[in-house]
Structure formats: C-alpha cells, structure tokens
Amino acid sequence: MDFKEETKSRIRDNANDVALTRCAKDFMTASTHPKYSYNFLALGRPIIQYPQDMVAIQELIWRIKPDLIIETGIAHGGSLILSASMLALLDYCDAVQAGQPLDPKKTRRRVLGIDIDIRAHNRAAIEAHPMVHRIDMIQGSSVAPEIVAEVNKRASGHERVMVILDSNHTHAHVLAELNAYAPLVSSGSYCVVFDTIIEDMPAGTYPDRPWDVGNNPKTAVREFLSNNHDFGVDEDVEAKLLITVAPGGYLRRR
Ligand SMILES: C[S@@+](CC[C@H](N)C(=O)[O-])C[C@H]1O[C@@H](n2cnc3c(N)ncnc32)[C@H](O)[C@@H]1O
After folding, report:
1. For the segment 102-126, what is each residue's pLDDT rounded down to a tens digit?
2. 248: how many CB neighbours lie within 10 A of its CB?
3. Which of 33, 101, 216, 222 is 20 to 30 A away from residue 254, measured at CA?
C-alpha cells in the first residue's frame, strides 16, 4: 500500500477505534473548563484554538489556495495571523514556481476579519505585526446588514473564497452568519464553523454564556444544511483530528 492509501486507511481505523475516540472525547470535555484552547500562539499572537484545528486550517488553505479568507471573531488576532501567514506562503510558492522574485508588497491573497469589539491593544498588536499588510479588519456585528454588505463588496473580485466562523456561538447568530457568508464560499472551498463541540458537551458547560446544548453552532449547521444542499460536512477532517472544537463543522461546498 502506498503512503497516501495507508494514511487514509489508518484515519478510518482511528475514527472507528472506540477506546481512542472515547479518550479524545474525554480530553475535549476535560480540557474545556481549564481553557486549554487559550494556551497557544500563531506567529506570536494568541490564538483561541486547539492545535489540531490549526493544523486542519493549514491543510485546507494549502489545498484550496484561497485568495480571500473571511473570518468572524478576531479576539487577539491569532487566527487572522495564522491565515495571513499561510496566504503569504502561497504567494511565496507562486513566485518560486514562476521563477520570479517575491515582492512582499504584492499581497493579492488577503484575510478579512470582522469583530464586534476590536480592542485597542489587540488592534495595535495586529497592526504592528509583519503580516498586517494582508489583513483587513472591520468592526461591527458580523450579522449587521451594513457589515454583510461591506464584506460582500470587499469579496467581489476574489476568485477563491474560504470562510471561518468563530464569533458569537448562539444558534441564531451562527445561522445568520451562515446565511450571510456561505454564499461567498467558492465551489470546492470551505466554510469552517467553530465550536460545534458545544452540542456534544455536558449541558451547562458554559454557565456564563448564552449558548448550550440545543443552542449552538452545531444546531445552526444542521438547520443550514437542511436548506442548502450544495454544502456538506467533510467528515474526513474530523476523522483525522479526533480532537477538534468543530465536529461536523468543516463544511465543503460542492
Ligand atoms: C472565540 S473569539 C475569536 C477567536 C479567534 N477566532 C481566534 O481563533 O483566536 C470570539 C470573538 O467574537 C467576537 N464577537 C462576539 N459577538 C460578535 C458579533 N456579533 N459579531 C462579530 N464578532 C463578535 C468577540 O468580540 C470575540 O473577539
């Protein structure tokens, strides 16, 4: 068996391994309260993600080669910086393949972040980061009509668009984000919906938040998919990660 086939088959076996998947689920449950997802940095900026999802995003960006990534939920900016750094590498690889010198000012591939509250110290740190030249930020609610209109305007002219949703995790909000931004996702590209894991956690895990079992990104994804048949869950991503905050949240557009 060649390496690719062997990897595929191992991923399937891992996903069907009851003891392994139980450990992964236990880890997800046990690591939520201690805020494990707050432990990491992307090129020096705090990113609120599990490392497995960071790797999945890296794999998807390489595969899709987007020229625009739209992200809701900026926080400290780590996820914007991670996406921007991958887009910079894609531009670098293009230049190498074309045998041309890389012009760091040419930043065709861009990240667009939206957050209702971009704190001054986070904005300053993002603006001081070397990746800032390919990052645009909009402050406002990701579901406000004027923000959705602005994102649509900025997305026009881009050919390959990927979307990452990681802001307010209530059913209503994520469903509104899906309805607003999924249409911008290019065929073959992804809309990644983070924190679908909330549905799989014990009820009451997030006592100080408006989301819980029955009201979260996974319930929004279910409703969205029942009305949007050109999107489907890429179960291979979850099967390989096992540890992820986005089970059933890696949505691929056909
Ligand atoms: C989980 S954090 C984002 C983490 C970030 N994506 C990362 O990986 O580091 C959620 C962010 O969503 C923002 N947010 C909450 N409600 C929002 C809304 N209605 N529209 C846009 N952003 C919102 C919060 O201000 C917060 O910065």
Report:
1. 887 778 899 999 999 999 999 999 9
2. 21
3. 216
Opening angle at CA 128, ends 122 and 134, nearest 5: 95
The pick from 47, 48, 54, 116 for probing ligand 1's pocket by mutation, whose C-beta has the most ligand atoms within 8 angstroms, reads 116
- In ligand 1, the atom with minimum distance to the C-alpha of 173 is 19
* Ligand 1 mutation target, pool 32, 115, 197, most atoms within 8 A of CB: 115
The model's pTM: 0.98
Q: Angle formed by the axes of helices 171-181 and 217-227, to 10°? A: 40
Q: What angle do CA 165, 253, 22 make, to 5 degrees?
A: 65
Render pLDDT for 132-155 as a digit per residue (tens, 0 to 9).
999 999 999 999 999 999 999 999
pLDDT at 238: 97
